[in-house]
Amino acid sequence: MDHGNDGVRNLLRTCPLCEAVCGLEIAVDSGDRVVGVRGDREDPFSRGFLCPKGASLGHLDQDPDRLTEPMIRDRGTDTWRTASWAEAFDLVAERMPEVVERHGRQGTALYLGNPNAHTVAGALYMPPLIRALSTRNLYSASSADQLPKQVAAGLMFGDPMVVPVPDLDRTDYLLMLGANPLESNGSLCTAPDYPGRLKALRKRGGRLVVVDPRRTRTAKVADEHLFIRPGSDAYLLFAIVHTLFAQELTRVRVAVTGLDEIRAAAAAFPPAAVAERTGIPAATIVRLARELVAAPTAAVYARIGTCTAEFGTVTQWLVEVINVLTGNLDRPGGAMFATAAALGIVRSRPFRLGRWTSRVRELSEAMGEFPIATLADEITTPGEGQVRALITVAGNPVLSAPSGARLEAALAELEFMVSVDRYLNETTRHADVILPPPRIVQTPHYDFALLQFAVHNYARYSRPLVPLGDRPAETEILARLALAVSGQPAASGTDALAAVDELIITATLHKAGMSERRAELRGENSTEQRLDLMLRLGPFGEWTGGDLNLQALLDNPHGIDLGPLRPRLPGVLRTASRTVELAPAPLLADVERVRAELNAAAPEVVLIGRRQLRSNNSWMHNVSTLVGGSNTCTLHIHPDDVARLGLGDHAVVKSAAGALTVPLEPTEEIMPGVVSLPHGWGHTDSPQSVARAHAGVNANVLTDDSRIDVPSGTAVFNGVPVTLTPA
Ligand SMILES: Nc1nc2c(c(=O)[nH]1)N[C@H]1C(S)=C(S)[C@@H](COP(=O)(O)OP(=O)(O)OC[C@H]3O[C@@H](n4cnc5c(=O)[nH]c(N)nc54)[C@H](O)[C@@H]3O)O[C@H]1N2
Ligand SMILES: Nc1nc2c(c(=O)[nH]1)N[C@H]1C(S)=C(S)[C@@H](COP(=O)(O)OP(=O)(O)OC[C@H]3O[C@@H](n4cnc5c(=O)[nH]c(N)nc54)[C@H](O)[C@@H]3O)O[C@H]1N2
Ligand code: SF4
Ligand SMILES: [Mo]
């Protein structure tokens, strides 16, 4: 970055590209172009850390294929044209009500993709859109991701937003399963410079144990790496629970119920019984249990490799059971709950699962959503309530959902589809209208979602760095969309936004008994006033005995350190018993499924996923500085399997759902009998020129939407049985 350049301003903003929430210093020239990016060394949380994706933000911003105007597709063709915002919203206001008229409210569906967890729009303006649609057909990337963790937390703690994170900076022992933060930079564990934090853990004498079917970059910096057979983490964890009871090692320090039931459930899983299924010797399992107890403090942390698996929810449940049984839940150095500065939804009643079920497969809702694994069923199965119109916001389910090819065919059958997205891609090309959000540098940023899962309490707000001009903010797009789906074309986006915000501000103040304080809220628009309100009413807030408000964040643009994690039990519990419930009925009920499969015949080869440092799910493959090299869509396979199956450079991989021809990348770092393909690729027909040149294949052609983790409905991406033949 050249600081001598005339007219170059160095501006501060949080990186929105992954969960690490790094502070960035972005150099913007007099033409508002991004000319450099570096880590903000004065950010108290990220302290200057930056990864290759964050460093490429300028390239992403200048991508000529990124959409800058609304796009409308001529009916029944693949021909797109640009349109004015008024025309685009008018079309939505005309067509959506027609679909509702013909097919009822359930005939409309909404899919929310991953970036909604990173935007102010996704956090604050989705509820009005959901209310306006009033359909039960809500879907999101959650059921391809972290839902098992939230369902387990909801049942154990009463609130699915109350999810423990390892106290990374203070723990003495970290058992990590199915996560590779050296490439992903962490998930449901917001920790900028995760690699540096792991290094620090070891430097202070702590121990890191990684459980993964691949010897990942994270495994290589660990004290110990254990290969595990995909999909078998629940067995490993049950055997640890079994050992803790059998050897009388439990030391519960928090109020719990269900201790006898969990002991009984674990009885069926002594270490010797699971050794073959997991591939981990019984003696090692016993040692892990003893080490977790012997360490001064310890935490178990499990992520995507164990969530998007057949027993995802049971696995996430057992992670917290072990944190409780070893005395590590809610204490420094153990597994703790963050204290987010902005007031979230305050639940009054305990979380419940399965309040209604889906039409076709009768799958339970979880957190108000149906599994993405059943969206294709709901679109293609005739009858009352068949989905005929879809809105996607920041998602690419053709590449991210199981049985992606089947879902793609289903999208082509819809009567009407709207996408809010930066790109014309594998999913949005089935839309009739695409509404593109503005540039990242034109967008305000506050991490409403991710700071609830941070390893250190912290807050940072960034105003837009560059003016919007005549484009609507994504917040406005969503507010206008909420009106349009009800047939009301809003004259102005800012009016729609202000109307939504005023309702919410009034209701929140009323509930807090502070209606008279409306005039005290600051902010240059109603969105900022909502943030100010949430900060003031939050746990560090000016109106609750602290001093935090919007002005404090504006005065501290590098972010504010709010201190290490602090114990939060029993205050955060929303369970009926006001204890940590170790044996919730829906989870106990699923143990039978786990037990039944313990001795099932193992498939010869199973498929798992992996993440790549310079990728971001499906949507950054059009940045030329990121693709190529190790960031290529290849199948990792053990050389012994290549030889045994007589494979060459390529293989045909077949599953119950589909088949792909893929290039092989033999490596000793994967278990024999396991192959790994990254997701988010498969851009063969993409209008994005760089992505098309590095197309790769869609891993989700192979994953099977008929297989789900039952309690949460989450897709199974890891442990998919496949066969390989020479290409
Ligand atoms: N660079 C980059 N960063 C990202 C993303 C990205 O695409 N690229 N995506 C972001 C998103 S959306 C998320 S959710 C997070 C996810 O963050 P992580 O959870 O860290 O995800 P991965 O890096 O895929 O690591 C998952 C690991 O699980 C292993 N695994 C597979 N199956 C099993 C199994 O059955 N048992 C066990 N124990 N391990 C298994 C895989 O080999 C892999 O190493 O990353 C985020 N960050
Ligand atoms: N086989 C397999 N499949 C997986 C996974 C796996 O490990 N293996 N991982 C799963 C996981 S963890 C996840 S989170 C999902 C992700 O699933 P999705 O969220 O469906 O997919 P993404 O590729 O993240 O797509 C994000 C979309 O948002 C757009 N976008 C980016 N920024 C913005 C913005 O600010 N506003 C708007 N409106 N749009 C924006 C991008 O252009 C892109 O189209 O994939 C899942 N699929
Ligand atoms: S680690 Fe994540 S938040 Fe940090 S710079 Fe990279 S993409 Fe951005
Ligand atoms: Mo994710």
Automatic annotation (TrEMBL):
Superkingdom assignment: Bacteria
One Gene Ontology cellular component annotation held by this UniProt entry: membrane
Keywords, in A-Z order: 4Fe-4S, Iron, Iron-sulfur, Metal-binding, Oxidoreductase
Residue ranges of domain 4Fe-4S Mo/W bis-MGD-type in the record: 8-65
Keyword Signal recorded: no
GO terms, molecular function: 4 iron, 4 sulfur cluster binding; metal ion binding; molybdopterin cofactor binding; oxidoreductase activity
Chain coiled-coil ranges: none
The protein's name: Molybdopterin-binding oxidoreductase
Taxonomic source organism: Nocardia terpenica
Lineage: Bacteria, Bacillati, Actinomycetota, Actinomycetes, Mycobacteriales
